[in-house]
Amino acid sequence: MAHVQCQCKQRIKISPEQYGRRLACPKCNTAFTVPPPEDPAQSKTDSDIFTFVDDEQSMQAVHSNNSSHCEHCAVPMATSAVLCVRCGYNRSTGRQTTPRDIDDVNTSLENELAPVGGIGEYFKDCARASLFIADAGNLITFIFVAILAAINAVVDMFSYLLIMFIIGTLFKGLLAAFFFNTVVNAASGENDLPDIGLSGDLWDDTIAPAINLLATSAIVALPTIVYLFAVGISSATETGLALTIGIGVFFWPITVLVIALGGISCFARPGQILLTIARTFVPYLVTCLVLTAAFGFTAALQFSLDSAAVKLGANKWAIATILWIANVYCLVVAMQCIGLYYHHFKKRFAWSWG
To answer: What contacts 27, CB < 8 A, 6 or more positions away?
Structure first.
C-alpha cells in the first residue's frame, strides 16, 4: 500500500488501482486526484492509517464494519461510540444528527437536570427546612451548635481580655463555617446539616470563615456607612437610616450566598450580582420575606419573654438561653432558604457554581 497526504496533513492509504482517480479526504472532505507514484519504494503499510475506497461496493463493506470507523465519513470511532463527533452520524438511528436533534437533546438534558418546580416548590422546600430538627442527626447537630453559640455569648462578655477575644474569634469562626456550609448543602439539594469539625487547618476551620462573616456584615452595613459619611452622624435622619438599613438587609441574602459559594472575590463583578437579582427578582423578594419572617419570629419571641420577665420575674439566664436557641434555629432556617433559592433558580443566575 502507498500513501498520499491531503492539504490538511491527513495521510491516506491507497491501492495501486487508485492512482489517477479522484478521491475525497475523510478528514476535511477535500476532493483531489491521486498523483502517480514517484517512488515504488514508497509502498509501505501503516496499520494506523485507515483504508480509503471510493467505489460503492467497497464503501458498503466499510459501512458494515462499525468497529473502528464512522459509517458516514469513515473517521476513526470507538467501538462503543454511537455518535460521530465529526459529521454527526448516529449509529443507532442510521442518519446524521441535525441541529434540531441537538437542540432536542439539550432541552431534554436541561429538563432532566433542572430542579423541579418554581416558587411553589421553593416554598415547600423552605417549609421542610423549618422542620429540620425532626431528623435525629440534624437535631443533635443543632443542639451542639446552640451550645457553641451560648458559650460564644458568655465569652463575648469578657472580650475586653485578649485571651477571651481570641477564643471568641475562634468560636465565631466555627459558627460562621457551619452557617456558610449550611448554605452550600442546601444549594446542592441536601437536607442534612453540615458537620462541625476541625480538619486541623486553623485558617480554613476558623479564620477564613470569620473573615467571610466580617465581610458579609461590612457589605450589608455599607449603605448605612456611606449615608452617615455623606450627611454626617449629626444630620442623619431616622428615615434615611431606615432606608439604608433596609437596602443592606435586601442585599443580605445574595451577599451570604455569593460568599458561601464563590468567595469574596465574586464581588469584583457587582454587575453580575445585580443582573442575577433582576433575573430572579420575584423569587429573591420571596427569599427576603421568608428571612424577614424568620427573624421577625425571634424579635416577637424576645418581646414576649421580656414582658414575661417583667410580670413574672422570670430568670434572665433562662430567657437568654431560649433566645439563643431561637436565634440559632432561625439562622439555620435562613441559611437553608438562601441555599434553596440558588438550588431552585440557578439557571437564571448570571453565573454558575454547578
So the answer is: 6, 8, 10, 75
